[in-house]
């Protein structure tokens, strides 16, 4: 009788403590699960981010950084090798640099988002071999001159 | 280094308001090389001239903000120009057309430099390259109303790249294409490489390509370009002006360099880097070093600074 009598007195404290411990564990598990879910979703969205998206009145067409069509028959040369730009890189650069106008930022962002091109190094490339001093030989042909002169445009 | 023994054939002719030269390592290849280069330059002129009312660039600039269908060549030229802006943080901006026009460079340079009266309009900053919409799949371009493109910073270099590749592919021999100083080589070079003369003063005669080089270098691949505040300079209302524009102000750049020559994997890259070097002034040294682009920079007093292995 005494045990059964004493048990109800001890039971509420023990039960409360056990419940609190359980609640604490559940809370911690829920926090861990939330964190894992958040990381997983972030990774998933990051991988699928370049899907075309229209912003404002900007066409959702690919921007300037995608591969252009083949040159016209009237232009015999090959397309320039660097036509592809990494979307993430371009977006990062667009975000890093101040745009002339707010509207411009929106347009550029939309253009970059519409670019579903594979990543490629975006930089000015050096030559395979650096220029070398030319030997001074009397029989050598006249050098091809390089000096600033523009075409019909500026620059 | 052994003396040059390869027979090199060359032809020079006027084009794009300057000169065009093609050199080939096989004399038999000269006629087709000339024809290919001439065809390329004609196509680029029709597509990208700022002064021809029948050019695609003219139609785009005067479309009032409407989308305009363009050729693949124009789309490529604009893509390269936008690349240039992105790669240089907006320093080389293709929307400087209005800026140049307001500085008096609104017609062929030979004619523009003859006018010396005061400017009628205030300067105008670049329109903002990020506002230009290019849709290569639809072959459409839309430029905001009032913004004028100018592809002069990259179109000529692109033409040199394209022409050199086409000539090399068609003839199989080594070739050097020089468009007003924008140089691209392709294929096997002659013994020792291609000789290139570096000039950095205003006495260069662009119509005849005559030169008194300050230095002669040999290149075996890629491109080489020079930009200068002296080569295309003019006076209006007593002010000295030149064609390298600071996009944020719409005025000629004030730089510690009067000339920048850069070698790169392509003529386009070399030209972008040389223009950006002028605009970036002292910062250009570290920038070019970081990109490993061999360069020769000349200060206004004639002092030469070489970068990244330039001889």
How would you summarize this macromolecular structure in one to three sentences?
The complex is a heterodimer of chains A (155) and B (311). With 155 residues, chain A is mainly alpha-helical. Chain A contains three helices and two strands.
Model description:
The complex is a heterodimer of chains A (155) and B (311). With 155 residues, chain A is mainly alpha-helical. Chain A is 44% helix and 3% strand. Chain A contains three helices and two strands, in the order H-H-H-E-E. In chain A, helix 2 packs antiparallel against helix 3 (102-113). The radius of gyration of chain A is 33 Å and the shape is rod-shaped. The relative contact order of chain B is 0.15. The chains are: A mainly alpha (155), B alpha+beta (311). The interface between A and B is large, with 71 and 142 residues. Strand 2 of chain A pairs parallel with strand 8 (194-198) of chain B.
């Amino acid at each position: 009788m005494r045990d059964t009598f004493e048990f109800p007195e001890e039971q509420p404290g023990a039960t409360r403590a056990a419940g609190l411990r359980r609640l604490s564990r559940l809370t911690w598990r829920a926090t861990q699960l939330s964190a894992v879910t958040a990381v997983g979703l972030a990774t998933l969205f990051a991988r699928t981010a370049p899907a075309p998206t229209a912003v404002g009145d900007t066409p959702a067409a690919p921007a300037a950084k995608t591969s252009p069509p083949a040159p016209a028959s009237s232009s015999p040369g090959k397309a320039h090798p660097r036509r592809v730009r990494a979307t993430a890189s371009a977006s990062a650069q667009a975000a890093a640099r101040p745009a002339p106008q707010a509207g411009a930022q929106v347009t550029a962002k939309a253009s970059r988002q519409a670019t579903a091109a594979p990543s490629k190094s975006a930089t000015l490339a050096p030559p395979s071999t650096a220029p070398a001093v030319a030997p001074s030989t009397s029989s050598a042909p006249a050098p091809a001159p390089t000096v600033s002169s523009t075409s019909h445009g500026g620059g | 280094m052994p003396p040059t023994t390869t027979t090199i054939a060359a032809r020079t002719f006027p084009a794009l308001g300057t000169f065009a030269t093609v050199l080939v390592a096989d004399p038999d290849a000269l006629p087709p090389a000339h024809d290919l280069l001439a065809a390329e330059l004609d196509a680029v002129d029709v597509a990208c001239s700022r002064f021809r009312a029948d050019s695609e660039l003219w139609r785009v600039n005067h479309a009032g903000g409407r989308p305009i269908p363009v050729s693949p060549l124009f789309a490529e030229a604009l893509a390269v120009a936008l690349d240039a802006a992105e790669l240089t943080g907006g320093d080389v901006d293709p929307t400087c057309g209005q800026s140049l026009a307001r500085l008096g460079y609104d017609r062929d340079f030979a004619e523009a430099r003859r006018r010396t009266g005061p400017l009628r309009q205030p300067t105008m900053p670049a329109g903002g390259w990020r506002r230009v919409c290019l849709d290569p799949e639809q072959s459409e371009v839309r430029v905001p109303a009032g913004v004028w493109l100018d592809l002069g910073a990259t179109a000529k270099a692109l033409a040199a790249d394209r022409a050199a590749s086409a000539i090399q592919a068609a003839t199989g021999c080594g070739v050097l294409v020089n468009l007003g100083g924008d140089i691209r080589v392709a294929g096997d070079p002659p013994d020792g490489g291609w000789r290139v003369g570096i000039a950095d003063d205003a006495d260069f005669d662009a119509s005849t390509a005559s030169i008194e080089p300050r230095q002669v270098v040999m290149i075996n691949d890629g491109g080489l370009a020079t930009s200068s505040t002296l080569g295309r300079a003019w006076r209006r209302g007593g002010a000295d002006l030149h064609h390298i524009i600071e996009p944020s102000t719409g005025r000629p750049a004030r730089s510690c360099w009067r000339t920048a020559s850069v070698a790169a994997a392509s003529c386009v890259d070399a030209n972008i880097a040389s223009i950006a070097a002028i605009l970036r002034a002292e910062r250009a040294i570290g920038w070019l070093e970081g990109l490993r682009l061999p360069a020769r920079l000349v200060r206004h007093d004639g002092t030469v600074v070489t970068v990244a292995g330039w001889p």
